[in-house]
TrEMBL record:
Keywords: Disulfide bond, Glycoprotein, Metal-binding, Signal, Zinc. This is Peptidyl-dipeptidase A. Chloride binds at residue 217. The lineage of its organism: Bacteria, Pseudomonadati, Myxococcota, Polyangia, Polyangiales. PANTHER family: ANGIOTENSIN-CONVERTING ENZYME. Disulfide bonds join 142-150, 525-536. One of its GO terms (cellular component) is membrane. Zn(2+) 1 binds at residues 367, 371, 397.
């Protein structure tokens, strides 16, 4: 690190370091940041470019190049000298300005992923994570066996199709059980990873890995869990009505005379019950966009933002992005997951999609450009490179999902010609399907089950033989769902969720994003546009763009809670989400009259 800093200084891009005794703490911090930033941006950009190539042209060669670039970035970010100097300066943070303190804390947060103060531990974690991913990615799921021989190998897509379409409970049970078999293969690896992740986090001064991840929000574990519990409690009355309606609907669908209090997991159309698709029939949104060209969908999403006063996307976006499916005849393979990229932390913004004329791609494209315009909004001199990211991890998803919601509003669809005169959307069926496949079923899963389980796993050092039992305790408590058969102690049904293995300790990001989006949407509709949040049109309203820029432009340079209170007038709450679904609550209470609800 010292050699790298010195080389940057000698190149003339920053002043040569002087003796620390000659400088005030603020001057020392300024000097460190002046040396750190150019290397950080260069290595970040190299890593992002390699990742882009690996995602848009999948090959072993490109994967290897990405690994090399990621390793170089991690070695710099976790450098022992960076850690030493940042820690020393934070010990006198009362003599530093707030923006400097935020940058130094971010420096240490980045270092905590692979601290070179314990390179052996960092290397062991990387290797163990790669092995765990290989176990999951390489597992052969099987729907039928003869002894130890699989006679019907299947993919997870095959299992999902069964759970989404089959009305045969025996077939559904086999598919659900097959989806959980990989858990036993993954359990010991997760336990090993728990030890390594906790070890890395403790090397950086955190109590455990979960506390390290929560620190992105400037909260303690206790504060985060209290926040999540409050949000779950706020949505619980509506969720209880939805769960009650769903179990009666499902019992009737499967010809069951007895309606269970807890929904059997294999009755639902999602392997984890995080979404309950297929319960509302007759909603066909694809027909609205099926006659449009994919290019129109992307261009209309851009027009949505431009109509609110945002700039046109830079020409480099159109030249560098990969927006459509790989043409027939090409052998190139690309990652199918939609994503937005801020390649150089400046003006190089790109999107990776495979846009087709479907409703999902229409809303997804609006969502992904939300990330792009978030990048553009905080890429300005007032926001240091280290803080060019969302106010916290949930804000980026929250902004993207906010625009997806806005793009689904009936007045917008009419204005751009997707809904013809006389063509109506059944609001109650729309709200019901939205609740079943969106935030109302998702919040208890994400803020409840996933977050409490991972807190127990890392902070509570949950014994291996207790993993499955604890998992299903949380599922019953928060989701009102039960396993269809007794689950083995040597299994790990939690491990079947990829995030537990390779995106750990931060699933609450998705929960908070859902809450943030409804709070922002409610404020925009009621206070800025004076419109009904269920029929609200942002299109062409520059005052909405001004509001969104004010929320997005600070990046991570300001506390996320301060930004939220300043712009919406209140702390984070699920109340706007509940108000959005208030007509549905009234409908469900009527539908459930005479039934015993709750679990």
């Amino acid at each position: 690190m010292i050699a790298a800093l010195a080389s940057v200084a000698c190149a003339g891009s920053a002043p040569a370091p002087r003796s620390a005794a000659d400088l005030s703490p603020q001057a020392q911090a300024d000097e460190l940041l002046a040396l750190y930033d150019p290397i950080y941006v260069a290595l970040y950009t190299e890593s992002a470019r390699a990742a882009w190539v690996a995602a848009t042209d999948v090959s072993e060669e490109h994967t290897g190049q990405r690994t090399g670039a990621d390793t170089a970035f991690a070695a710099f970010a976790g450098n022992a000298e960076v850690i030493r100097r940042a820690r020393a300066l934070l010990e006198v943070q009362d003599q530093l300005d707030p923006l400097t303190v935020r940058q130094l804390r971010q420096m240490l947060y980045l270092a905590a992923s692979a601290p070179q103060t314990r390179p052996d531990l960092a290397r062991a974690r990387v290797a163990a994570e790669a092995q765990q991913s290989a176990r999951l990615d390489g597992f052969q799921f099987c729907l039928a066996r003869q002894g130890d021989t699989c006679t019907q190998p299947v993919t997870t897509n095959d299992l999902d199709r069964v759970l989404q379409t089959s009305t045969d409970l025996d077939e559904r049970l086999r598919a659900w059980q097959s989806s959980k078999e990989v858990g036993a293969v993954l359990r010991d690896g997760l336990v090993e990873l728990r030890g390594l992740r906790n070890g890395v986090a403790r090397e950086m001064g955190y109590r455990d890995f979960f506390a390290f991840q929560v620190d992105n929000y400037s909260l303690t574990t206790e504060e985060m869990m209290a926040l999540l519990d409050r949000l779950v409690d706020e949505v619980r009355p509506l969720y209880a009505q939805l769960q009650c309606w769903a179990r009666h609907e499902l019992a009737q669908r499967y010809g069951q005379s007895e309606v269970p209090t807890l929904i059997p997991a294999h009755w639902l159309g999602n392997r984890w019950g995080q979404s309950w698709p297929g319960l509302v029939e007759g909603i066909d949104m694809d027909s609205l966009v099926s006659s449009r060209e994919p290019e129109w969908i992307v261009q209309q999403a851009e027009r949505f933002y431009v109509s609110m006063g945002f700039p046109n996307l830079p020409q480099s976006f159109w030249e560098q992005s990969d927006l459509y499916p790989v043409p027939e005849g090409e052998t190139r393979r690309k990652n199918a997951h939609a994503s937005a990229w801020h390649v150089d932390l400046q003006s190089d913004v790109r999107s990776l999609m495979s846009v087709e004329p479907t409703w999902e791609w229409f809303t997804t494209t609006h969502h992904e450009l939300g990330h792009i315009y978030y990048y553009i909004s905080y890429s300005r001199p007032e926001v240091p490179y280290l803080l060019r990211e969302g106010a916290n991890r949930s804000y980026h998803e929250g902004i993207g999902d906010l625009i997806s919601l806005a793009a689904s509003q009936e007045p917008y669809l009419r204005e751009i010609g997707l809904l013809a005169e006389g063509q109506e959307i059944d609001e109650m069926r729309w709200l019901l399907d939205s609740a079943l496949t969106g935030p109302i079923t998702f919040l208890p899963w994400s803020a409840g089950v996933m977050s409490h389980f991972e807190r127990d796993l890392y902070a509570g050092e949950l014994p291996p033989e207790e993993i499955n039992r604890r998992w299903w305790e949380h599922v019953a408590r928060y989701q009102g769902i039960a396993p269809p058969t007794e689950r083995p102690a040597e299994g790990c049904d939690a491990c079947t969720k990829t995030h537990i293995n390779d995106d750990p300790g931060q699933y609450y990001d998705y929960a908070l994003a859902n809450v943030v989006l409804y709070q922002l949407h409610d404020h925009i509709c009621r206070n800025i546009l004076q419109q009904d949040p269920r029929a609200c049109n942002y299109y062409g309203r520059r005052e909405v763009g001004d509001f969104l820029r004010a929320v997005m432009s600070p990046g991570a340079s300001r506390d996320w809670q301060e930004v939220l209170v300043e712009h919406t007038g209140r702390e984070l709450t699920a109340e706007p989400m509940l108000e959005y679904y208030r007509p549905l609550m009234q409908y469900l209470e009527e539908q459930n009259r005479g039934r015993t609800c709750g679990f």
